[in-house]
Write a structure and sequence with these properties.
31 strands, 33% helix, alpha/beta, 3 domains, 648 residues, 7-stranded mixed β-sheet, binds 5'-O-[(S)-ethoxy(hydroxy)phosphoryl]adenosine
């Protein structure tokens, strides 16, 4: 097996804007090098210093790290509480500052100051205690993007309960499977949420899941979000407002052990069964707090908006914990980006004076497709930094993001991380890192990524390989809930003792990392292993292409043939001539080895609700197979049906 061939080259470099660096927390390469050197000289002293400075310790830790691969324990013997960090720690200076600025899809708004958020969290924490929830119990959260979702997470953290948020777009079956795996005792939910002008039927799904059986579940608390009338509830459901009304607004934090589990979050693996990624309290808290400040350069005056749903890790680390620990104002939006009009996001940025905007490449590409007239209608001058997460961002989208949304003024942080890493590991630091479109650039101080070949040897600059993290870091996952064997197998068996990310990457001559996508999305075409993301990026760089997904199809001659699914920009006609032109375009951009063997046009691509293209489904379509795989993460099943129709 040869190594991953990485062929896309991108030579543009953008230095940090001068005015930005002057005011940034980390201003120069020197600042970065100093931190890196401090860690290299004495890792434990480095992490111990940071943990001591950043977190409030009810009881100090006596040992920084115990590393028995693949198991790490951090800040041993310490006691802390992340709800305290997010709330109580901000009451001195920010009690009357807006913590959450919520906007519902229908246009309703709600502001909660740090003091009010503190009181709400305490009420819910007391409510959970009244239901008999104690430290270590699992609490399911199945809510729309409303303040109660954040409140629920922090209420669990306050009493040491372990939250497991299930994305509101997941089906009853997916919910049931996750609740059973976690052994949840209480479920916090709502009657529904608003999306694209319609109701997401959360309570109906909960009832279906309950009917199918969740034996551990004793109580279901239902928030009224969409119903005009009082809810008609069935046993064991209780009304959220009735439940909290009688609870007091003070609840002392339960000081948990550093390693106490904070949450379980399910994520898909290579098999059908989702993995319950388990995160521990102190390490997760330290790293999300620090990275929020370093990467987003958070300041007191910032209005910060991350568009991720609380159902994904980004909604944990960078909607809830990280920014609130830093005491900023967090914007939270319930609904779809294009409801009621394609400029909803830009309208929100303008009205709330958002200064930091963090979203996903897939969103950026769909905005590109909708046309620049929508952002151009709005005053986006409050923005000072843009972020990207979730998949490799193709240079074309990066440049559009920079020019059309950032108006050329704002640095872009392309942040690489995973559910498993808990927080950002590779990213530009906006005051000091020259950026290259499509590269997540350099590891954050204390993080040790390496690109290795199949024998575990570092590959030379420019060559592709597998991305590993070679040393433990505080916010790493601790295990897979209930399946430690799978944890070891999935992450630590590729090279014993090293964390395998599942991603393919290369490093350039400046040491910058270019993540090319999941290794399972890497295909071997005629002896060359290619990152499908690179071929996609080339396709998307064509004037007429909105979005593209490339998968492998078994091929007698080449081993694997490349099949590209392409969505065209509005108004562009699909034709054979265009197919030929696109194939030529890819040849030109990357080389003949990357030229797709087949190009199919489609109206839309099947995606998870977090926006990731479901390539495994496309592989089946490409191969003419009937899909028997789990489809619970499809945003819109009709998209798959449509693809099949176009097929025939
Ligand atoms: C991909 C999301 C390139 C990668 C936080 C990773 C990225 C997976 C980037 C994790 C990025 C995330 N550049 N690829 N900046 N960020 N990825 O668990 O393949 O939903 O392994 O976590 O997304 O996805 P997850």
């Amino acid at each position: 097996m040869t190594d991953i061939t990485s062929v896309l080259s991108e030579n543009r470099v953008f230095p940090p804007p001068a005015g930005f660096s002057e005011r940034a927390h980390l201003k120069s390469r020197d600042d970065y090098d100093k931190l890196c050197a401090e860690e290299r000289a004495n890792p434990e002293a480095y992490w111990s210093r940071l943990a001591t400075e950043e977190l409030h310790w009810n009881q100090p830790f006596h040992q920084t790290l115990e590393w028995k691969p693949p198991h790490a324990r951090w800040f041993i013997g310490g006691r802390c509480n992340l709800s305290y960090e997010c709330l109580d720690a901000n009451l001195d200076q920010h009690a009357d500052k807006c913590a959450l600025r919520f906007e519902g899809e229908p246009g309703d708004t709600r502001n909660l100051t740090y003091r009010e958020l503190h009181a709400e969290v305490c009420r819910v924490a007391n409510g959970l205690k009244a239901l008999g929830v104690t430290a270590g119990d699992r609490v399911g959260i199945y809510l729309p993007m409303v303040p109660e979702a954040v409140i629920a997470m922090l209420a669990c953290a306050r009493i040491g309960a372990v939250h497991s948020v299930v994305f509101g777009g997941f089906s009853a079956q997916a919910l049931q499977e996750r609740m059973n795996d976690a052994g949840a005792r209480v479920l916090l939910t709502a009657d529904g949420g608003w999306r694209k002008g319609a109701v997401v039927p959360l309570l109906a799904n909960v009832r279906a899941a309950m009917a199918a059986g969740i034996p551990s579940l004793k109580d279901v608390v239902v928030l009224r979000r969409v119903s005009p009338q009082p809810l008609e509830l069935e046993k064991p459901e209780v009304d959220w407002h009735t439940w909290v009304k009688t609870q007091g607004p003070e609840c002392p934090p339960f000081w948990v052990d550093s390693e106490h589990p904070l949450f379980i979050l399910y994520t898909s693996g290579s098999t059908g069964k989702p993995k319950g990624v388990l995160h521990a309290t102190a390490g997760f808290g330290l790293w999300t707090k620090l990275t929020s400040r370093w990467v987003f350069d958070l300041r007191d005056t910032d209005v910060y908006w991350c568009t991720a749903d609380v159902g994904w890790v980004t909604g944990h680390s960078y909607v809830t914990y990280g920014p609130l620990m830093n005491g900023v104002t967090v914007v939270m939006y319930e609904g779809a980006p294009t409801t009621p009009a394609p400029d909803r996001f830009w309208d929100i940025i303008e009205r709330h004076h958002v200064s930091i905007f963090y979203t996903a490449p897939t969103a950026i590409r769909s905005f590109m497709r909708l046309g620049e007239e929508h952002p151009m209608k709005h005053d986006l001058s409050s923005l000072r930094l843009l972020g990207s997460v979730g998949e490799p961002i193709n240079p074309q989208a990066w440049i559009w993001y920079r020019d059309t949304i950032g108006r050329g003024r704002c640095p872009i942080v392309d942040t690489w991380w995973q559910t498993e890493t808990g927080g950002i590991l590779i990213s530009p630091l906006p005051g000091l890192t020259p950026t290259k479109p499509g590269s997540a650039t350099l590891p954050l101080p204390g993080i040790h990524p390496e690109v290795l070949d199949t024998h575990g040897k570092p590959v030379p600059p420019g060559a592709g390989g597998k991305l590993f993290i070679t040393k433990p870091w505080p916010s790493m996952l601790r295990t897979i809930w209930g399946d430690d064997e799978r944890f070891t197998q999935t992450y630590f068996s590729e090279q014993p003792g090293l964390y395998f990310t599942g991603d393919g990457a290369r490093r350039d001559n400046d040491g910058y990392f270019w993540v090319v996508g999941r290794v399972d999305d890497v295909v071997n075409v005629a002896g060359h292993r290619l990152g499908t993301a690179e071929v996609e990026s080339a396709l998307v760089s064509h004037l007429n292409v909105a979005e593209a997904a490339v998968v492998g199809r078994p091929d007698e001659l080449k081993g694997t043939a490349l099949v590209a699914f392409v969505t065209l920009k509005q108004g562009v006609n699909a034709s054979d001539a265009l197919k030929a032109e696109l194939a030529m375009h890819v040849s030109r951009e990357i080389g003949a080895i990357a030229r797709p063997d087949e190009i199919r046009f489609s109206q839309a691509l099947p995606k998870t609700r977090s926006g990731k293209i479901m390539r495994r489904l496309l592989r089946d379509v490409a191969d003419g197979k009937v899909t028997t795989q789990d489809t619970t993460t499809l945003e819109d099943l009709s998209v798959l049906a449509a693809l099949r129709q176009e097929d025939e």
